[in-house]
Structure formats: structure tokens, C-alpha cells
Amino acid sequence: MSKDNKPHEEGNPSASAQRAETFKVQSCPECGSTRLMRDYECAEIVCMDCGFVVAAKIADRGPEWRAFDDEQRSKRTRVGAPLTYTIHDKGLSTTIDWHDRDVYGKSLSPGQKAQVYRLRKWQRRIRVSDATERNLAFALSEITKISNSLNLPKNILETASVIYRKAVKERLIRGRSIQGVTSAAIYLACRQCGLPRTLDEISSVNCEQKGSGS
Ligand SMILES: [Zn+2]
Q1: 22: CA distance to ligand 1 center in Å?
Q2: 30 Cα: distance to centroid of ligand 1 (angstroms)
Q3: Alpha-carbon span 30 to 45, nearest angstrom
Q4: pTM of the model
Q5: Residue 3 — φ and ψ, nearest 5°?
Q6: 49: CA distance to ligand 1 center in Å?
Q7: CB count, 10 Å around CB of 29?
Q8: How far apart are alpha carbons 140 and 161 in whole angstroms?
Q9: Going residue by residue through the chain (214 aa), what tens digit of pLDDT does each one get?
Q10: How many Å lie between the centroid of ligand 1 and the Cα of residue 41?
């Protein structure tokens, strides 16, 4: 992650002061005026004197809220976890967390707890809507299990999930076992990322899990 992408710098007084400073130093290349205005709607920096557009398509890297300490920052952040191919819906759907607490951190009453428990159950059921998705979710969880027991790094897990998704798209799964294709996907991912793992290692872990699962 580069320094510019730091999401929480609004609360840091030195960072915001620095940003204001660089903004002030800039002057119009046409008339030399330093009265520049940020037009947030058009994402432009405009000279207030002659109307020259100094910069277009500027990115506002700061958050649109202000936070003054860590607690506020974590409460006000609105971004979720990053996209991942290891979850069938790429981790985009809502998950209700296991804390029985409300927005303010107070614990819920027994009635509310029961309601949240039911909501959680239905949310889990609704997330996986049809048979194809159910198979994908199962296969991806298998890939996760195998790569965890082989202690494979996260990028292999992501790559293997992408390979498996491609195989589904090309209709290569029909007529083959999910275990077989998941092993093959992990093996391919290891080859692609230059990690030396044999097919035997991967399939042995898969067979172990099959044995313990049934
Ligand atoms: Zn100007």
C-alpha cells in the first residue's frame, strides 16, 4: 500500500495541515494567482481569478468524515473487508457479526438476542441462493480447508479460487468430482505462483479430509 492511499489521515493534524499547505502553495500557471478553489462536484482545482482549470479529475483521498481518535475512526469508517474470490459472493453480502451488541456497544436484551440469532440464521441461508452457488460455496470452502492444512499463503488461496471459478465458467466441473477439481486448482495455483508442492501432497491432504469428513 502506498503512502497516498492511507485511508485515515483526516484525524492526524500534521497530515491535514500538510495537505492544506501543498494546496496553498499551488498557483495558477496562467495568471500566477494563488487563489485556487477545489470544486468537489467536478473534481477539479479551479483558479478563482481567471477560471483556469489547474487540475482535473483530482481524487479525494481522505475520508468524508472527521475523526479525532482511534475509536471514532473505527466507528465512522464505512468501508468493509476487501473483495475476495475465496467466498462465493466475493464477500460482498452482509454478514451479521457474532457480537450481541448494538451500535453503541451495549449488550442486547434476551428478546433482541433471540431475534438477532434468527436473523443471522436466515442471512446465512439466504446468502447461498441456488444449487450452483451452493456447489461453488462448498468447493471454495474445500479449497480454503486444503490450503490451510498445507499452510499455503493467501495469494495461492486466492489464485486457486480464481482458477476454480474459471473451471466452473468453462463447464469443466460436470462429470468430475469437486475434490478432484479443487486439488487440481490448488496444484495449478502453486505452479503459477512458483511454490513447489507436489500433486501427491495436495491429494493426500484432500483424501485425509475426505476420510475424516465421512
Ligand atoms: Zn489564474
Answers
A1: 17
A2: 5
A3: 13
A4: 0.56
A5: -65, -30
A6: 5
A7: 9
A8: 6
A9: 334 444 444 444 444 444 444 454 478 888 888 888 888 777 888 888 888 888 887 776 666 666 777 777 776 666 667 788 888 888 887 778 778 888 788 888 999 999 999 998 888 888 887 888 888 999 999 999 999 999 999 999 999 999 999 999 998 888 899 889 999 999 999 999 998 988 888 888 877 766 554 4
A10: 20
Amino acid at 158: E
Residue with cell 486444503: 146
DSSP 33-95: ---EEEETTTTEEEETTT--EEEES----S-SS---SHHHHHHH----PPP-TTSTTTT-S--
Q: In a 3-state reduction of DSSP, which class is residue 107? A: strand
Please count the residues of the chain. Answer: 214
What is the distance in A from the centroid of ligand 1 to the CA of 28? 5
